[in-house]
Write a structure and sequence with these properties.
With 342 residues, the chain is α/β, with parallel strands linked by helices. Helices cover 24% and strands 23% of the residues.
Length: 342
């Protein structure tokens, strides 16, 4: 299963999950391997089966083999046929998988396999697989994009000086990492206040300043209009204006447009709104070794009236970037209230 997870990492991030498959014989020897390479390509199981010799009926011959798959084999026809039926047709005798598929349109493959007489075991290395597929699982279960909120601040948590100037708090290495993260997301969002104050371009650029091959869709969230001459209107991707303050409605709209990952970059008002709404999946904080002081905090009202309501996170990484530090975090698991004793 761990080999299958390492194979899955070869696949691209996107609408489909990254899945790996290993076919092994009764002695545990690996016979074939596969992974999903993106929308419209064979799923991991079919990719692995394609490497086997065929039976007289033309189906791959996996007689007596065990398939180790990181996600329950799918049970529906989309761009490709159902993997559960492909495994049955190939003669696989046993299927071991890590996670049940939470997608109601694709799940149920385990039951199909069992009905066909295939031995099935689920939940193997489920914790590792869930961590690996965390972003995809969130998008499927909540039907919204995975949200990454980023800000850069001084050691005292200021995003700008008292006069509003903020370029540059962090150094070159940190700013280049931000461009890499922009390119890694489907879309990038700012609030209308940031557009009116800073006129950002929100493009992803490579080391020499040229445009990166992959650009995020620029998104502006807020009730005010984006000026006709704003630089965002010259972005390589068409601008999406969401004239609302309802973040859940905004995310639902983006999800319907096929956007599965959103990079929230500014400003403090929008970042605070996402935090207050509990809609942060990953938090990226760039800290510069400087003190600014004043009122321009990176986060403003996050909806915390009392310390008991604070938004708890757990650190997932600390990295030095030149003189700066990048801290990554994700929401802490919710603690269940103690049960009353009777």
């Amino acid at each position: 299963m761990r080999r299958a997870l390492s194979l899955a990492a070869n696949g691209p991030r996107g609408i489909n999950p990254r899945v790996g498959c290993v076919l092994a014989d009764a002695a545990g020897r690996v016979v074939a391997e596969g992974w999903h390479r993106g929308v419209g390509t064979p799923h991991a199981e079919v990719d692995a089966l394609s490497q086997l010799p065929t039976k007289p009926d033309g189906a791959p011959d996996a007689t007596g083999l065990t398939a180790y798959v990181t996600l329950e084999p799918c049970n529906h026809t989309g761009h490709t046929g159902p993997c559960s039926r492909a495994l049955v047709a190939a003669g696989v005798s046993r299927v071991v998988y890590a996670l049940d598929d939470p997608n109601p349109a694709a799940g149920g493959g385990a039951d199909t396999l069992r009905v066909a007489g295939v031995a099935v075991e689920g939940g193997v290395d489920a914790e590792e697989a869930a961590a690996f597929l965390r972003a995809w699982l969130i998008t499927v279960r909540e039907q919204r994009p995975f949200v990454t909120v980023k800000w850069a601040s001084s050691l005292d948590g200021r995003a700008a000086a008292a006069d509003g100037t903020s370029q540059w708090i962090t150094g070159t290495a940190a700013r280049q990492r931000v461009h890499e993260q922009r390119a890694a997301h489907d879309a990038i969002a700012v609030g209308t206040g940031t557009v009116l104050a800073d006129d950002p371009s929100l493009t992803a650029r490579a080391d020499a300043g040229e445009l990166s091959p992959k650009q995020p869709v620029p998104v502006v969230i807020g009730e005010r209009a984006v000026p006709a001459d704003a630089r965002l209107r010259r972005h390589p991707k068409p601008l999406v204006e969401l004239r609302t303050r309802d973040l859940r409605a905004a995310l639902a709209d983006l999800f319907e447009r096929g956007i599965r990952s959103l990079y929230v970059e500014g400003g403090p008002t929008l970042a605070s709104a996402f935090v207050a709404a509990g809609l942060v999946d990953d938090l990226l904080v760039y800290l510069a070794p400087t003190i600014i002081g004043g009122p321009r905090a990176a986060i403003t009202d996050a909806g915390v009236a009392t310390i008991a309501n604070q938004h708890r996170f757990v650190f997932t990484g600390i990295e030095s970037l030149g003189e700066d530090v990048l801290i990554t975090a994700q929401p802490a698991p919710r603690r269940e209230a103690p049960k009353e004793q009777h």
